[in-house]
From TrEMBL:
Listed GO MF terms: dGTPase activity
Lineage of the species this protein comes from: Bacteria, Pseudomonadati, Pseudomonadota, Gammaproteobacteria, Thiotrichales
Keyword presence, Cell wall biogenesis/degradation: no
One of the GO biological process terms: dGTP catabolic process
Species per Swiss-Prot/TrEMBL record: Hydrogenovibrio marinus
Keywords for this protein: Hydrolase
InterPro entries found in the cross-reference section: dGTPase, dGTPase-like, dNTPase_2, HD/PDEase_dom, HD_domain, PHydrolase_assoc_dom
Gene3D superfamilies listed in its UniProt record: Hypothetical protein af1432 (1.10.3210.10)
Protein name: Deoxyguanosinetriphosphate triphosphohydrolase-like protein
Amino acid sequence: MTISAHKQELDWTQRYTNFLDNEESRPARIVYQRDRARVIHSAAFRRLQAKTQIFGLNESDFYRTRLTHSMEVAQIGSGLVEQLITVGEGKAYMDWLPSFYLIEAICLAHDLGHPPYGHGGEVALNYMMRQHGGFEGNAQTLRILSRLGEYTPKNGIDLSRRATLGVLKYPAIYDEVVATSSDYQARIKQEDAFDFRTLDMSRWYPPKASVYQEEREQFEWVLGLFSDKDKALFTQLVSNESHFQHDFHKTQYKAFDTTIMELADDIAYGIHDLEDAVAMGMVLRDLWQAEVMESEVFKRYALWGDEMTTMLFSSRSKDRKHAISKMVGIMVESIFVDVNEIFEHPLLRYQAKLGEAEMAVLELLKKFVYVHVITLPEVKGMEYKGQLIVLDLFKSLRANPEALLPRNTYEKHQRAESERAQQRVISDYIAGMTNTYASRLYEKFFTASQGSIFDRL
């Protein structure tokens, strides 16, 4: 590493608490290892073991949760970095390649803000918070890292500046993104639906934004080492007409570490989640053959032969696991680093990418999983049930905070300086619930035959 890169690396190891207290940064080898440890030992990370990935938690202990998904993303992220080291001798990006500790911290943290019941819970919370700053899973992740986590009194888990930058998938503030949609602005003024069962939840998907207004100061600190030009480009909002039914604008660019994390996340989603679907019998061999192996995309980019299909749909789980491992390996070994010349700073200039063929096939697999797993009526039905639980819990807690909120949460609610801040306290409480906790609390509140003051939720 050059002297200049080493000095800048120390700037990136700074924590927000160090910044506020005017303390010097510590060496990267210490800081990034502790970043990873702080995530692993956080309550938010442990709760991911009882939050939905795709299938219900009671289906089997084989299928993935958000915790096992995050661990797989971290493992793939390390594999991507290792591959870039293998092919990177003498290349300029090597000075800025994240360490294994750093990329694992980013990957393990990327879903911390994931609420109960997956994206269904996210949409439900966004609906209930639509007039009070909204809800978005990535923004909730930053809120946990910078405010809610348990490692500091006021600054959350307090990761290093670079690790925090790495989890910012959409470097924009929620309020500013929703302001770009006149249609959405008109609808957020509506009163709550009298009956949530009549609500069209597809109209309340949140925008892609990784920052709430409440965390603006931390966001600006993270970007503080970039030039004004780089910051303007990095946070610029552009038209995005394809985002569901809304015309929200969105950011175009991601930091170097984020591009590695996102590739790892996409590989885990497109391939590991496929394994769950095959194991559960939701995807059969004929469907795979017709829509993947015989698709125009795969005919153009044939990354494997029929032997992969035979292994994937074998009656032996070891064969299926071997096929999944080979698919992941093919993706990982194609990674390379591109340069985006419009940026000045290396952490924005360098961009991790997969080869053309591998990226095309990965997108094919992601679409296949989405169409034949994520949007199945059985899966969407469970998501809908979770949405109703979140909506009813929020409505009741909002109406009766003193009676229904836990004492420490109610104290935060009382100290809140505005209605928006009060609603954020309730949102934080529900977002931190596991699927199991939320369903038990719902039964305790609303099921006549359930509930006792001695129940442990």
